[in-house]
Design goal:
heterodimer; A: mainly alpha; two-stranded antiparallel sheet; 4 strands; 71% helix; B: 117 residues; elongated; transmembrane (chain B); membrane (chain B); CPA3_antiporter_subunitC (chain B); transmembrane helix (chain B)
């Protein structure tokens, strides 16, 4: 039992509750407390990262109930990795929101912190039903955040997002019920023990349940037939919310890694590698779809939203191949692409604020204010997102390309990623040159001043790509260890033997 | 009992999906509600159907599985909250667009597009 594991859940929970009751407190106080909560969360996730790096599994059993009977939180390298990725991104997005995006709604910080809580539960939980609850917590906070901000533009995309996710939740419950009806457990470690023993008719039931679960996770991750809700929703969200939402698709990817490698992994008997042969082609088509969307985007925010879909495709293709190298490469790329996409959302908002009525639409307009600063940020972000050296996107893609073994899969993966990367570059060059270079006479009449907090937050978010390159050695070592740990499922099962408090008396 | 139960779940789910695919927010909300009823019953059935048995171990020779009951309870609470939210959102959509079409007021969109050009 390790009580540290509850910290990433309790800190945003308590901070969020505090914010709920201080809706009418001075905004400076609310901001300070909210930011303090996020800073505390970054510190805690760093502590958990160092703890998890010894390669052992730590479990926290709620109410001291022995798993599989109670709910457990499980910390391993993968969970700690996701926690750090989320909390760093959240801190910078949160700082950005202090520049004015948090005004107009007294509960912005509450929702933001509850969203973080939902994300952290999803990363830490070792129970399939608890994963459903975590999804609901983060979704209901995200519904509120998506609708945050003035005007009526968000109503329709928000409605689509909510209805689709409610259908997804129903599917999740159906698949959980199907799996439970056969295995009699929902604890992931126990499922990993029970699923390989399932045979005959029951195996078909579990298979149907597992495939439906994949549909649910694919909806969260925005894989092709289920990705059309994303661009409109993300492009209409306010900038810090869109930046935070960059992590939301990664929750789906995380759930796929967690459930499908552990429960339906190589050792799962009749159900080994369930769904992975579907995932590989779908991932490549998703990538192609994302590139097409990016080429056709008419504003910087939807360009970035399509970049989210491109990165989902790029991430899921190596994950579907399932070797240790490809998994490690995917995790490295996930860190890089999540932070860059979030940074691009923030930069797009800054650009929009400096161009008056042209906003972030990709059209010619009078020259914007602070063009040099913003264009450099955009260029670094675009280069990193398209996967050119010297930034982190290049190393991530290189690792993915090098991880596949020669064969038809290699041909498909190399072809799609390289051609897709080139066309993404075309999309960014087109957008960048029109927005930053091709100006018309006149001056911007309604430019808002560029605030220090927003500029620093966006700059830091983009600069993380340089940090990833500088730290590429340690990060790559960590992702390699993580991949090895994910594939060694026998160690995870030992969680079932976690000694409870007071048992040795 | 199994057959009736299965038919009820099937009917609820089928009408839920049908209503979900309608173009107005009101049928969509009703469809979501019916779908969640069907799902809750399905989840309940995953612990096997039994009458007159206690969900307590050792009280009788056979027992009803208590876990699906707990799961259904959680699912009902969450589903209820989500339905409340989607109702408010639909009303907001109606107020914003003077129309309860799920894609907003299409006619108005076209008008404003023309105004922009």
């Amino acid at each position: 039992m390790n009580h540290w594991l509850t910290a990433p859940v309790l800190i945003p929970l308590l901070g969020g509750i505090l914010q709920t009751f201080m809706g009418y407190a001075p905004i400076a106080l609310r901001r300070t407390l909210a930011l303090a909560t996020t800073v505390l969360l970054v510190a805690t996730s760093m502590v958990l990262l160092t703890m998890a790096d010894d390669g052992s599994y730590r479990a926290y059993a709620f109410g001291n109930w022995q798993p599989p009977f109670g709910i457990v939180l499980v910390l391993d390298r993968l969970a700690a990795f996701m926690l750090v990725m989320t909390s760093v991104l959240a801190l910078l997005a949160h700082i950005f929101s202090l520049g004015g995006a948090d005004e107009g709604n007294r509960q912005f910080h509450t929702l933001f912190l509850f969203q973080l809580m939902g994300l952290n539960i999803a990363f830490l939980t070792g129970d399939l039903f608890n994963l459903f609850v975590a999804f609901e917590v983060l979704l209901i906070a995200s519904y509120g955040l998506l609708m945050h901000g003035g005007g009526t533009v968000r109503t329709v995309p928000g409605l689509h997002y909510v209805v689709l996710n409610l259908v997804g939740s129903s599917l999740f419950l159906i698949s959980v019920g199907m799996i439970y009806s056969v295995t009699g457990t929902l604890n992931m470690a126990d499922l990993a023990v029970k699923v390989p023993q399932v045979t005959g008719e029951n195996a078909l039931l579990v298979k149907a349940g597992g495939m439906m679960l994949l549909v649910v996770f694919a909806l969260k991750a925005a894989v092709l037939p289920l990705c059309f809700w994303l661009p409109k929703a993300y492009a209409s969200a306010t900038a810090p919310v869109a930046a935070l939402f960059a992590i939301m698709t990664k929750v789906g990817i995380y759930a796929i890694i967690r459930v499908y490698f552990l429960v339906f992994g190589d050792d799962a008997g009749e159900l080994a590698n369930l769904g992975m042969d579907w995932l590989f082609p779908l991932a490549l088509i998703t990538l192609a779809m994302g590139v097409m969307g990016a080429l056709g985007a008419d504003n910087l925010k939807s360009l970035t939203a399509w970049q989210v879909i491109i990165s989902v495709g790029t991430l899921l293709a190596p994950i579907a191949l399932g070797s240790a190298e490809s998994l490690s490469a995917a995790l490295f790329y996930m860190l890089s692409t999540t932070w860059i996409v979030a940074g691009l959302f923030l930069v797009a908002d800054l650009v929009a604020s400096q161009r008056g009525s042209a906003g972030d639409r990709i059209i010619t307009a009078p020259m914007m204010r602070h063009r040099t600063f913003l264009s450099v940020l955009f260029m670094i972000g675009a280069v990193a997102a398209a996967g050119l050296p010297p930034f982190s996107g290049f190393f991530g893609k290189l690792l993915i390309l090098m991880s596949v073994e020669p064969g038809p899969q290699m041909a498909w993966l190399w072809g799609t990623i390289l051609v897709g990367g080139f066309l993404t570059l075309v999309a960014y060059s087109r957008a960048g040159s029109i927005v930053f270079w091709r100006t018309v006479d006149g001056h911007v009449e309604t430019a808002r001043p560029l605030k220090g907090t927003t500029a620093v937050a966006a700059g830091a978010m983009i600069a993380l790509t340089v940090v990833i390159v500088a730290m590429a050695g340690p990060i790559n070592r960590y992702t390699e260890d993580t991949a090895a740990q994910i594939l060694d499922t026998s160690a995870y099962i030992d969680i079932l033997q976690t000694p409870m408090v007071g048992e040795d008396d | 009992m199994e057959l009736v139960f299965a038919l009820v779940i099937g009917a609820l789910t089928a009408s839920g999906v049908y209503l979900l695919l309608r173009a107005r927010t009101f049928p969509v909300v009703v469809g979501l509600t019916l779908l969640s009823y069907g799902v809750n019953l399905f989840l309940f059935a995953s612990g096997r159907l039994a009458t007159g048995q206690q969900p307590i171990l050792g009280s009788s020779a056979s027992y009803a599985d208590p876990l699906p009951q707990a799961l259904v309870l959680t699912a009902i609470v969450i589903g209820f909250a989500m339905t409340a939210f989607v109702v408010v959102l639909s009303l907001r959509n109606l107020a914003d667009n003077q129309d309860d079409h799920v894609d907003g007021n299409r006619k108005q969109d076209e008008d404003s597009e023309e105004a922009k050009q």
